[in-house]
Amino acid sequence: MGTRRRQIVFAVLMVLALVSACGSAEPAGESAPATPGPVQPAALVVKVDNAPAARPQTGIGSADVVYVEPVEGGITRLAAVYWSQVPEVVGPVRSVRETDLELLAQYGTPVLAYSGSAPELVPLIDQARLVKASPQEVGNAYVRDESKPVPHNLYVHPARLPKPEAGQSALVLPSGPAPSGGRPTATWSVKFQSAAYDLAWSAGWTISVDGAPLVSADSGPVSAASVVVQQVSTRTGRFVEDASGTVSPVVVTVGSGAAVVLRDGAAFDATWSRPTAADPTRFTTADGTDLPVAPGRTWIFLVPA
């Protein structure tokens, strides 16, 4: 009986040990939850005029990211994105374009300050993941500078706008060390149909437009730690978005294409890719290595291929 009892006790202890081990292990076929990546800070976006009559603009030198978009007539407008340093005033503010709805979806639900839109575009704006902040919604945030002509004189006070919501999307432009393979580069030119930009490296990329330095009235000459020249396709817009009756091109920013990333005084050939509008745009080298931007401000030129 003594031997039999010892065998039973030993068997019971073995079963208890197995049960304890199984209880502490992960269920078969499941893995530990992945550590979430960096989250995009809550963003404010302001559509900024870039016509000669609008210069010098105010507040563009503080933007974390500036997108240079082609619009009707081959000119460009700016989408200035802020999260780390929001200036007191930004402008002149101009209208939203169909391009912006797809482009800005990667920022989660940004607050978008704009002067208005084509009436036909309103339903698409209402459906987009953004917080509308035009004079129609927050009129007290906007003022006119009577020393400038309409429509180049509308300015916004960001502190009077709704606060953007945080933690809704992956980080749009990760920063980090540059990979190998860059070509030493001191100057670069970017041309649109009716606008020309020149970049010069000197501890940052200083920006000139149409032969003159680009200046922000509140902070002086504009420069960026990184500049991305992103080749994009365009399609004809569905709506007339200009007072003259001209249809604005719509930039396609979902998909993939060629790009050049300028940082640290060097040029890196890259591929951009963005599977869906909710995904951030990623830049990689020829062998698939991630190509981050340098810490600091970034300008992205959306250039029709």
When the domains are counted, the total is 1
Strand content: 25-35%
Shape: globular
| Helix proportion range | 10-25%
- First-last Cα distance: 89 Å
Q: What class would the helix/strand composition place it in?
A: mainly beta
Q: Using the 3D structure, state the CATH architecture.
A: 3-Layer(bba) Sandwich
Largest sheet: 12 strands, mixed
E-strand count:
21
What is the CATH level 1 assignment?
Answer: Alpha Beta
CATH superfamily (homologous) name: YerB-like
Describe the fold and architecture.
This protein is mainly β and 305 residues long. It has a single domain, classed as YerB-like fold (3-Layer(bba) Sandwich), CATH 3.50.90. It contains three helices and 21 strands. The chain has helices at 2-24, 98-103, 122-127; strands spanning 44-48, 65-70, 76-82, 111-113, 131-132, 142-144, 154-156, 183-184, 187-192, 195-201, 205-209, 212-213, 215-216, 220-221, 223-224, 226-240, 247-252, 255-263, 266-274, 282-284, 298-304. Strands 1, 2, 3, 4, 5, 8, 16, 17, 18, 19, 20 and 21 form a twelve-stranded mixed sheet that branches. The N and C termini lie far apart (89 Å).
